[in-house]
Amino acid sequence: MSLSGRRRRLSAVTGRIREDDIALVRERARIDEVVASYVTLRNAGGGSEKGLCPFHDEKSPSFHVTPARQVFYCFGCQEGGDVITFLQKIEGLGFAEAVERLADKFGVQLRYAEGSASPPRRETHLRPRLIEAHKVAADYYADRLSSSDASVGRQFLAERGFDKDAAERFGIGFAPRDGDALFKHLRQKGFRDEELVTGGLVAQGGRGHYDRFRGRLLWPIRDSSGGVIGFGARRLFDDDRIDAKYLNTPETPIYKKSQVLYGIDLARRDIARSSQAVVVEGYTDVMACHLSGVPTAVATCGTSFGEDHGRVLRRLLHDHEEFRGEIIFTFDGDDAGQRAAVRAFGGDQQFVGQTYVAIEPDGLDPCDLRLRSGDAAVRELVARRIPLYRFVLGNVVARYDLDRADGRVDAVREAAKLVSSIRDRSKVDAFARELAGMVGVDVEEARAEVRRAAGRPRGDDRGAARGSVDDPRGGTRGPSAETAERSAPLPDLRDPRFTLERETLKLMVQQPQVVGPMAGGIDGEDFTHPTYRGVWDAVSACGGPSAAPDSEVWVSKLRENVSAEPVARALNALAVEPLLSTKEPTAGYVAAHVYRLQELTALRRITEVKSKLQRTNPVDQATEYNRMFGELVALEQHRRDLRERAIGDEA
Ligand SMILES: [Zn+2]
């Protein structure tokens, strides 16, 4: 969208901010303070602070801010600049708009060149205008809460344990029932019709403008720095023309529901301080939590918790390298809640070890719990959180009769599939141990079952399609390609399981001439990640690395053979990322990768055949047994050959 471009052009026409004023804004606006609204920063030594980058998704912090030099730079994605650049990028603002916002916040009086002392036309700073309009609207609505019309709303609050003070603390308001009261009020305050429509406060119908929210109880939704960006509205009257119990601000330039968290302005500092965030389901639950002494509660607004919400929280949560904080979900005890938990487990698993659930046995949400049992009960609910994985495993295990031996076997087998799908390999063993305790089997048995599950596609029980092989460089060769495809189209760059595949492909993309002579034995099976497999397929479709023309043409030729988006992105990355070797790759370096890759494939097949052999009776199934034994011998020989070639070429 070229909105920011349009704004920039407009402000160029309507008057420039004077250079010395811009310099003053740069000087006065504290970059660490501005950044802190979005990212929790920790001391990184040497006068720098660091946190999780808001411009790319990361698990450990590479986003650095140096207040003394007023700069930020991310070592992960190379975004960098000064405080103005930061605000522009994170809010999608034009230059002038970012300067104006900072000037406002840090008390710099801006003067405009070309003789004009007044700010440029209003289009140039849409966001502050929309936030201002929301602020005026929020005040107006809050004021109306004491009107006689609003008695149903006040009753609603009272029934849920919220008194006048609570309503004021959260800025709750009431939207009058007549069609355009707010519209008239805002117009009178100097806001223009387009601004109000763009901001979602007012809608336009056949008979003119009317208020979006009518006859409803309103919660102002704020961004992390406290600006009102939207409203959540609860139905109060039976004759409400809109059936939905809750109505929210639609997507606007300042309201993105995939990122908005109700309560974030109140919870932000406590989330950073305690490295804990509590995700509840509704506005009244957020209120109940905060009033009960759980100040880290937030809620999504009219949408389920998604990856963007997770990113917003993780940036605030980040504490230090070892401890990455907790996200606690309160779920209903009912089936829907439990299904949601299982789904969360199957989704973005990167943080599964940090995810907890707090379940109220009677299925009460925090608001009802506070009503029934008081503030302490809400605090206890959160304190009694359990790790998500334990909750999900418990649910799986509960489906089996653990008094029976076959029930235990089935329970372990079913739960092992879940455990093996966890991408954080460091957690797998602990989870396997826990599973063993839960079911009452030997730890080794649970581990073996997890390893077995890791070797085959999830949900596929046709047997060990792929063996699991320990990679001597650390990490177990984990979920099969199919599992990986479902959970992550782009391989995690730091995942050691794929380092070898990645490096070999980098060589093929960047140094095809060096790899060419050795690449003959490689085939698609050598790549366990589907995205890497896709890159190899493109290399293969172009005749393999030995068919490569000079390198500039090579990459574009490969690109032409790629249709899937993740594969195209991976290809670009493989083309620019430096090789792990700092020197020019020698034949030995290439061999170490190419042959090792094939050796791992051989190892996987060996494990697979061995496991089949174990399950085959050498007497009753002699022919089959002997065939597999022969295959195993041949595979072992093949593997030794590969190893010797790797070493031979290295020497
Ligand atoms: Zn970054």
From TrEMBL:
Positions of CHC2-type zinc fingers: 53-77
A GO cellular component annotation in the UniProt record: cytoplasm
Coiled-coil regions, chain positions: none
Pfam families the UniProt entry points to: DnaB_bind (PF10410), DnaG_DnaB_bind (PF08278), DNAG_N (PF08275), Toprim_4 (PF13662), Zn_ribbon_DnaG (PF01807)
GO BP term, example: DNA replication, synthesis of primer
Gene3D superfamilies: 3.40.1360.10, DNA primase, catalytic core, N-terminal domain (3.90.980.10), DNAb Helicase, Chain A (1.10.860.10), Zinc finger, CHC2-type domain (3.90.580.10)
Essential cofactor(s): Zn(2+)
GO MF terms, alphabetically ordered: DNA binding; DNA-directed RNA polymerase activity; zinc ion binding
Its biological purpose: RNA polymerase that catalyzes the synthesis of short RNA molecules used as primers for DNA polymerase during DNA replication.
Quaternary assembly: Monomer. Interacts with DnaB.
Protein name as catalogued: DNA primase
Naturally occurring in which organism (per UniProt): uncultured Nocardioidaceae bacterium
